[in-house]
Design brief:
400 residues, 48% helix, alpha/beta, five-stranded mixed sheet, 2 domains
Length: 400
């Protein structure tokens, strides 16, 4: 490039005065500088390497390419290196191995694109992708942790939620992620919208941390069925629910001990309480409104997860078990970044996500399952919370 530029400059008319030469040189420099400012113009250089270019480049470019801040990235490399989860090879350092993985899940890039970008063979790219996937997934026990039984600050510090939900430890919900499956399995993975998907069950805290993740279920499965399968199988290691504590669940799940659902047949979503019908008309509507306001944190978490790792928005052409593991790894990285980064750009904007931007929830639970799991204690608890909440509401309007 430099030689071509020199040659082209030599072709300029020798009679150009000094000012014209200076202007031409400045214009050429400016053109080359602006084309390197965006991630799309980052060219893989054989001399310095794509990783070196990004590592030494602007922080915003690094963030865009690898979906996290530089310091958070380096801390993760240190963890993987010190614990022996990954090893430097003769041609690919751990930093580049992780970079390959993050570039794929952060942009849903094909193997061929990554080959050209990092100057490695398809086999090398696949091998390091799978090695990093396995390593990050192995961190799940450390970064997907059970919350403390104490009342979450989000509840404790809000009169609309405290003391009514003081025993709530988190929220459970589901999300359909596009799936690539063999033809023989497509009928099972086709959800109610006609899209091939895997049904992912997750639990999270009110600070957007995933507690539990269970991906891989076929898209046709109801959320209540997936939750029942988790609770019936001790090998799934669902966090033990302390006595008297519970999770909030949406309208697609049964109201039972340890899981408080909204009232069926009563308006629920926050947007249903806007306009002329803003105020709740009874205890059940008030309960549902506050339940929805509090429990939408699970959908916010899913939205942040998909925004950071767009591979979850499309059906990647990997084996089903790899697609499942990618979801787990993405949740581990989500939690890791939330803990390690003080000013992550996505978590900083989390509160801007509104219910209107979130996907529709399954509001048709398996009624046979609901009947078989109904427990009087759970219904009594929900009724008592609603009654106390309504009593305070009609006497203290400032709480709305």
């Amino acid at each position: 490039m430099h030689k071509d530029t020199t040659a082209s400059m030599d072709d300029f008319d020798l009679e150009l005065d000094e000012m014209e030469l200076t202007a031409a040189a400045a214009g050429y420099y400016y053109y080359n500088s602006i084309t390197k400012q965006t991630c799309r113009s980052l060219s893989p250089s054989k001399e310095s390497g794509f990783m070196t270019e990004v590592l030494n480049g602007h922080d915003d470019v690094f963030q865009e390419m690898f979906r996290m801040d530089k310091n958070v990235f380096h801390k993760l490399c240190d963890i993987l290196r010190q614990r022996g989860m990954l090893r430097d090879t003769a041609g690919v350092m751990i930093e580049e191995q992780l970079g390959i993985f993050l570039n794929i899940i952060g942009h849903n890039e094909r193997n061929r694109v990554i080959q050209e970008r990092f100057h490695h063979s398809g086999e090398t790219i696949s091998r390091h992708f799978n090695n990093v996937l396995k390593a990050v997934k192995s961190l799940s026990r450390e970064f997907l942790q059970t919350p403390t039984p104490s009342t979450p600050p989000k509840i404790l510090g809000n009169v609309r939620f405290y003391p009514y939900f003081q025993d709530c430890v988190g929220v459970i919900g589901g999300m359909h992620i596009p799936a690539h499956v063999p033809a023989k399995d497509q009928s099972r993975f086709r959800n109610k919208k006609g899209v091939l998907s895997q049904n992912v069950l997750a639990a999270c805290t009110f600070d957007l941390q995933f507690i539990f993740i269970y991906p891989g279920w076929e898209g046709s499965a109801a959320g209540s069925r997936v939750l029942k399968a988790v609770l019936d199988d001790p090998h799934q290691n669902f966090p033990c629910i302390p006595e008297g504590k519970y999770y909030l669940v949406d309208t697609g799940y049964a109201n039972m001990k340890g899981f408080i659902a909204p009232f069926q047949g009563v308006r629920y979503h926050v947007h249903e309480y806007r306009g002329a019908n803003q105020l709740p008309r009874n205890a059940r509507e008030l309960f549902n409104h506050r339940h929805s306001s509090l429990s939408n944190v699970i959908q916010r978490s899913f939205s942040l997860l998909k925004t950071r790792f767009p591979i979850l928005k499309l059906a990647p052409q990997y084996a089903v078990h790899i697609q499942r593991d990618i979801v787990i790894a993405a949740c581990v990285l989500h939690n890791y970044i939330q803990r390690m980064s003080e000013k992550d750009w996505l978590f900083s904007d989390a509160e801007r996500i509104t219910m209107d931007e979130l996907p529709d929830l399954d509001e048709n639970p398996d009624m046979e399952l609901v009947v078989s799991l109904q427990e009087h204690v759970a219904f009594s608890l929900r009724e008592s919370i609603a009654a106390e909440m309504w009593n305070d509401f009609i006497n203290r309007w400032d709480q709305w």
